[in-house]
């Protein structure tokens, strides 16, 4: 069986979603980062192909096409105060969330 594909969604697809992808990749998982503001035209395609859609702010579910909302899981970390996908505090926070919510 193939590994699930996680779609990590944040505002611009540069910091929080990339950090979450890094955590998932370190655990041997497939993950793609996307930004609502930078690649909205790709969202339907990516949502269709994802097994789980991980949104990094609660209100981002409102931007996910309705047909894919059952795939959404909240990974709410709030607004991007890190601006760096390599920030250790962000990585640690997301690593704990992945363990608690995804069990990996």
Question: What does the secondary structure layout of this molecule look like, with pairings?
Answer:
Elements lengths: L4 E6 L5 H11 L3 E6 L7 H7 L2 E4 L16 E3 L13 H15 L2
Helix pairs in contact: 1-3
For this entry, give a set of tags.
3 helices; 4 strands; single chain; Rossmann fold; 104 residues; 4-stranded parallel β-sheet; 32% helix; alpha/beta
Q: Could you describe the 3D structure shown?
A:
There is one protein chain. β1, α1 and β2 form a beta-alpha-beta unit. This protein has a four-stranded parallel sheet with strand order 2-1-3-4, sandwiched between helices. It has helices at about 15-25, 45-50, 90-100; strands at about 5-10, 30-35, 50-55, 70-75. The chain is built from three helices and four strands. By secondary structure, the protein is of the alpha/beta class. It is globular and about 35 Å long. It starts with a strand and ends with a helix. The longest helix is centred in the C-terminal third of the chain and has 15 residues, at about 90-100. It has a single domain (about 5-100), classed as Response regulator (Rossmann fold, 3-Layer(aba) Sandwich).
Query: What are the secondary-structure elements, in order, as H or E?
Result: EHEHEEH
The total of beta strands comes to: 4
Radius of gyration (CA) equals 12 Å
Ranges where pLDDT stays below 50 over 5 or more residues in a row are none
CATH class: Alpha Beta
Task: Report the sheet-strand fraction.
Answer: 15-25%
Fraction of residues in helix = 25-40%
Largest sheet: 4 strands, parallel
